[in-house]
Amino acid sequence: RSGEMAKLTQLIDNDVFRAYATYTTIVLLKMMLMSLVTAYFRMTRKAFVNPEDTASFGKGESAKKYLRTDPDVERVRRGHLNDLENIVPFLGIGLLYALSGPELYTALLHFRIFAGARIAHTFAYLIPLPQPGRALSWAVGYAVTISMAYKVLTTALYL
Amino acid sequence: RSGEMAKLTQLIDNDVFRAYATYTTIVLLKMMLMSLVTAYFRMTRKAFVNPEDTASFGKGESAKKYLRTDPDVERVRRGHLNDLENIVPFLGIGLLYALSGPELYTALLHFRIFAGARIAHTFAYLIPLPQPGRALSWAVGYAVTISMAYKVLTTALYL
Amino acid sequence: RSGEMAKLTQLIDNDVFRAYATYTTIVLLKMMLMSLVTAYFRMTRKAFVNPEDTASFGKGESAKKYLRTDPDVERVRRGHLNDLENIVPFLGIGLLYALSGPELYTALLHFRIFAGARIAHTFAYLIPLPQPGRALSWAVGYAVTISMAYKVLTTALYL
């Protein structure tokens, strides 16, 4: 079985694939960070959605008042959902793009701009920056994904 | 390193994998389109959720009235979330299915029906079509994914 | 082309990759189950969100009263979204981890604990269990994903 493992390792040894692995892990970790930011705001703003989450604040009405929405919590949640909507396409299309044999330089350019755009988008959403800051950072990540999709379809199209 | 790249390219040269790459890219692009449709409805219906998005409409109360929900915007957002809930399983299970050595004809049948069902689901949701139009298109995509999961588990099961 | 197919099959023949395929399919199927639970609660609680979904209950006001939110439906939907937020990172980081050449024993430990944690999280959310039941099951899955991300970045880092 060591022969098979060697072949698997070759995939992770390929520079384009390593770059994909690196930037995909970075943007997924960044997305996971949104869960911690949501939890932080829920606890500091005392704004919860599940009755069992407020049980430590006492029983009945004294705990019930913490079952409410908070603008900061909702803002982080919208940023998190926007990550899902944009990082899922990157995850899938980026993998296929990495396997479609792009030049290393071109691939790195795509991955770096996408990761930078999504990190910028998070800052633009959470600070928040005035528009079109958030719109532009979103559009850049979107355009990079479309560009990779174009490469995948022109390389691999089989309908 | 050209030897490694050649091996990578073999993956994208495999017909089943090319079909997976093609249909996955199509359904992910379709899902990404939902972001544009949401933005279109937010702007034409003037229904926003972030205060910074309405700043161009003026200050204070004149802009605040555009911070509201709109039925058309919410409908597109539900369609988008339904895409996420169903296309993420296709992305993962479909990849493993493509690597599990299915017949090309069978694989194409799965991928084509899934993509068709998700496109039909979007039309059924946005027009909207009377039920059970949307329910049926959802169920067809769901059943295709279950069928691929069955093939993956019978081929690769290692608990 | 049978040579290429053989190479593809070697991927699914690798024990670590087979384990990844198995547990990924299991957690994705578990996530898909949330759609059925949502539909079940929507129908038994008669709580719908789309007007076309209540058409079978009659016309006008008699059907309109079923366009409402229900605590049980909303609970399942939150569990479903939490699945998306946590299983998407597992899908991507887990794949890269499986390709980074981990020991079979270590890989199985990661995959089994993650799958167990997510199944426990679903029960904790839907029953619901008192906290910190849900928080702990969430944190365990989160920590496993971070551990896999660490392995990927130390093996494949290419910035």
From TrEMBL, chains A, B, C:
Keywords: Acetylation, Endoplasmic reticulum, Membrane, Mitochondrion, Mitochondrion outer membrane, Transferase, Transmembrane, Transmembrane helix
Top-level enzyme category: transferase
GO MF annotations, alphabetized: glutathione transferase activity
Catalytic activity annotation: RX + glutathione = an S-substituted glutathione + a halide anion + H(+)
Transmembrane intervals: 20-41, 84-101
Pfam family, one: MAPEG
Topological category with respect to the lipid bilayer: Multi-pass membrane protein
Enzyme Commission designation: 2.5.1.18
Record keyword Endoplasmic reticulum present: yes
InterPro entries, sorted: MAPEG-like_dom_sf (IPR023352), Membr-assoc_MAPEG (IPR001129), MGST1-like (IPR040162)
GO CC field: endoplasmic reticulum membrane; mitochondrial outer membrane
Coiled-coil residue windows: none
Oligomer status and interactors: Homotrimer; The trimer binds only one molecule of glutathione.
Family the entry assigns: Belongs to the MAPEG family.
Protein name as it appears in the record: Microsomal glutathione S-transferase 1
Organism from which the protein derives: Oceanites oceanicus
Lineage: Eukaryota, Metazoa, Chordata, Craniata, Vertebrata
Gene that encodes the chain: Mgst1
